[in-house]
């Protein structure tokens, strides 16, 4: 189990969303030293950006117009934290310059990523210290440092609560995150990004549920995410219950059973029949276990669940 569940969630969340419109380096390791970049996003040169998907991501999609490094923070980023991120950025710059020596300065400049530091909050003194200010054409909460620094500090608590900022506000804290999760749940169920985010939130709930040092914010988040987790669990159990034996294996099993009854089974076929019998028996046991778990989740008896699913009592063992 990861020691930093929120950090792991943030990185996986951004990687999943951004991979829908571009390329994400999953390793994120710099060649110069052993430093890990949380999320390194580049444009997919082989395929044009899907503008509809990009618009679906709202402000996050706008961030992904150019190559980018995303460094999300669970707690408010400090001045030292921003400097650590900037150090990674400069190492990336150095790597790019080494590998593009024959290109023009303009071409190299186009490949340099922007650093987006995503913080739940950012104090006025922090922003002032990095000369981070609002830029014309951008909303409150997005603060650009000097142009040549290629660094932006995003104060999530300052973002307006709109559809455009939803995917970023999920990475906030406290009431800001809770509101964003509620909005996420209200999206149409056929929205693939919604389902991806909900699944990751479900995983987050399962991890923080067993944390030894839970705080009140953890407890509130667990309470909010519990229905999502239970829904995901129920869907997984139903999938296991409805999963059938491979038709070819079933046909082979029935053929061998018929040969056994006719006493025409060879030794090799007998061994195959034993293996198939074990496979089918194991499948039946797994299916029965899934039924029992789902019955417990729905607070009903096993027989009541089987009736509601249209399953005959004898069909879980085949």
* % residues in beta strands: 5-15%
**Percent of residues in helices:** 40-55%
Mean pLDDT: 82
User: Strand order within the widest sheet?
Assistant: 1-2-3-4-7-6-5
Major sheet attributes: 7 strands, mixed
Radius of gyration over alpha carbons?
26 Å
Which spans have pLDDT < 50 for at least 5 consecutive residues? 314-318
Instruction: Find the structural class using helix and strand composition.
Output: alpha/beta
Order of helices and strands: HEEHHEHHEHEEEHHHHHHH
Task: Figure out the total of helices.
Answer: 13
Number of domains: 2
Provide tags for this entry.
disordered C terminus; 318 residues; 9% strand; 13 helices; 2 domains; alpha/beta; 7-stranded mixed sheet
């Amino acid at each position: 189990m990861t020691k930093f569940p929120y950090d792991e969630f943030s990185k996986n969340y951004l990687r999943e969303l951004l991979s829908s419109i571009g390329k994400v380096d999953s390793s994120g390791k710099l060649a110069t030293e052993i430093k890990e970049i949380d999320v390194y996003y580049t444009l997919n040169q082989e395929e044009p950006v899907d503008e509809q998907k990009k618009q679906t991501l709202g402000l996050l999609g706008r961030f992904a117009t150019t190559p980018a490094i995303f460094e999300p923070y669970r707690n408010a980023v400090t001045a030292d934290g921003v400097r650590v991120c900037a150090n990674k950025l400069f190492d990336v710059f150095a790597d790019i310059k080494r590998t593009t020596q024959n290109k023009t300065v303009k071409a190299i400049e186009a490949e340099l990523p922007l650093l987006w530091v995503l913080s739940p909050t950012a104090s006025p003194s922090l922003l002032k210290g990095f000369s981070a200010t609002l830029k014309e054409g951008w909303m409150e909460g997005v603060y650009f440092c000097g142009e040549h620094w290629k660094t932006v500090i995003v104060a999530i608590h300052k973002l307006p609560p709109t559809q455009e900022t939803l995917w970023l506000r999920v990475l906030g804290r406290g009431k800001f995150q809770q509101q964003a999760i509620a909005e996420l749940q209200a999206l149409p169920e056929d929205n693939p990004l919604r389902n991806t985010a909900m699944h990751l939130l479900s995983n987050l709930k399962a991890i923080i549920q067993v944390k030894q040092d839970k705080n009140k914010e953890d407890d509130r988040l667990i309470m909010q995410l519990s229905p999502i987790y239970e829904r995901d669990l129920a869907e997984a159990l139903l999938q296991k219950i409805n999963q059938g034996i491979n038709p070819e294996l079933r046909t082979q099993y029935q053929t061998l059973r018929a040969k056994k009854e006719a006493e025409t089974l060879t030794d090799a076929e007998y061994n195959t029949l034993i293996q198939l019998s074990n496979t089918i028996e194991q499948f039946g046991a797994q299916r029965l276990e899934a039924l029992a778990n789902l019955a417990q989740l729905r607070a009903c008896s096993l027989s009541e669940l089987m009736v509601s699913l249209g399953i005959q009592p004898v069909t879980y063992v085949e």
